[in-house]
Amino acid sequence: MKEDFDPVVSPPGRKIVIVRCGASWTLALLLFLGTKNPHIPPSSPSLCGLLVDARSSSIAQYKTCPKYIHQNGYSRCKFSVLRTVVDFLKMRYQEKDTEHYTFEEMTEKAGLLHLNAEVKEWLVKEALPHNLKVEVTEGMYYLFKPPLPITGRHSLLRLLRQKYKKGLGGVMLSDVQECVGPRWKKIMRQVEREVLQVVRKADRKLIIFHKDKSLSLSVSEELVRVWRGLSFSDSNKTDEDIETYLLQEGLF
Known about the structure:
By secondary structure, the protein is α+β, with helices and mostly antiparallel strands. The protein has helices spanning 71-94, 103-109, 117-127, 153-166, 173-180, 184-190, 221-229, 239-248; strands at 5-8, 14-21, 24-31, 68-69, 134-137, 141-144, 171-172, 195-199, 206-210.
C-alpha cells in the first residue's frame, strides 16, 4: 500500500501532514529539527501514533519521525485497527480456515506489525472480547464468530430445514453473505429450487426459507387469473358470504 502524506502550510520548524488512517484522515503534528511543542508532550501515551506495516494493512505507516495524533484521530485509528483484525478473521473463515489464532499470530498475519502497548491492551481486554463477530476461546485464541453456522450449500439447506421444522422462519441473505463471502452467488444458484426467497417490505431485505415440496399444488393459470380478479366491496364478509359469491361466479 502506498503511503499518503500531503504537506500543507505550517510554521517554521514544524510540518503538518495528512496521515491516512483507515477510511479517515487525521492531522498529525510532526516535530523535527530539534523543535519541541509544549502543548503535546512526547511521553503522552494517549497521543502516541500507531506504527504498522503499510504494505499489508489499511493503516498508514510513518517511520522517519515521531507521530502525535489528537484524541479523536487516535480513537478512529484504534477502531480502524479493530476493523482490520475482524476483517482478517472473517476472510479466513470464509476461506474455510478453521485455525484459531493467538493475538500475536493474528495481528502479524493481518499486517499490524507494531502496535503500541495501549492499543494492544484495548484490543485484548475490551474491543475483541466484546465484539459480536469475534469468539475468544480458552487459552486466548481468536476466531471469527459467524451470524449463522454455515460454510456452504449443504449446511445452509440443513439449517433451513431445522428452522422450518421448529417454526423459526428463515435467514437473511445478508447473514449468508457474511458467512460464505464471495461464494454466496454460486451457493444461491445451487439452492434456488430448494428454497423460497421473500423480500421483507419493511426494509427490503431478502429472507430465505425452506421450500416444502409436499405442499406444492398444481393450479391452472386460468383459475389463478380469475381468483386474482375477484374483489369484495365489504371487508366484513363472512365465510358464507364468500362461498355464495364464488358459487355465483362459478368457481365453487
